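Dear colleagues,

As part of the handover before I leave the project, I'm documenting each prediction I ran so the next person doesn't have to rerun anything. This entry is a single chain, and its sequence is reproduced below.
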Amino acid sequence: MKAVEVQELPRVARRAVLERRRGLESIVEPWLRLHSALAYLFLYIPIGVVIIYAFNDSRLVSVWGGFTTHWFGDALRDVTIVRSLENSLLVASMNALLATVFGLGAALALQRVGPRLRLFFNTLIYATLVTPEVVVAMASLIFFVRVGVPLGLPTIIATHVVWNTSVVTLLVRARLAGMDRTLEEASFDLGATPWGTFRQVTLPLLIPAVVAGFLVSITFSFDDFLLSFFVSGPGSTTLPVKIFSMLRFGVSPITNALSAMILAFTLSVVFMAQYLLRQEGRGVRLVRVR
């Protein structure tokens, strides 16, 4: 009997610990849910208010005067706003293209270097992402001024590319880490050239991450204010910088409409990027079909 009781003791103890843990979870979980809900409300209620008052017919932001959409038309008829929108689209597209090319090349190169060199470059990549954006903006401004490069759209694009290349590199490297390397080995065994293997095997596997990195780079660049504000010059004002200059004279329905348009554009691109990141198995299916 004593031997049986000794064997039963650990089971009883484990059961007691599990029951106590469930009891604590039942107490803590509702508070965690409430905390999360309050955090989301704190973040998104101001955004919701901006969107609602973008359709306000009254010129007074704090007074509801009925539903209208004419503020969007007024914003798009303003020549300076349209020019800043064109600048933002140009910067975002060029930045996304260059950052995607550089990020893809960096990810492929880091996959084939030694561990020490890979650790060194990984540190540089993470340092770029964790460094405060104002520090990057100030350093970029000082660099361009010291080397005598005039501030304008090229300096904005260059600064955005430096920032976003790290993001694309991390996305592509994450996809490379989960890729089946035997597919490339099989391609080489069948006599394919390195370029043919990359074009027909590696690239289809990386397409979801590459396109997602391209889209994420567009969103980061399109709505970036700090980098663009520091390194912009005459005639290179982007849309976020233009909105900031308009806010100096107070919040108006036009600024609300512009904010709503930026939010709609950013959310649509982010949802597309999230969808593509979930399609990781698509590249494998394409390779198998070929």
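Confidence is low (pLDDT under 50) at residues 1-7, 283-290. The domain at 78-289 is CATH 1.10.3720.10 (MetI-like fold).

All the best with the project,
I.
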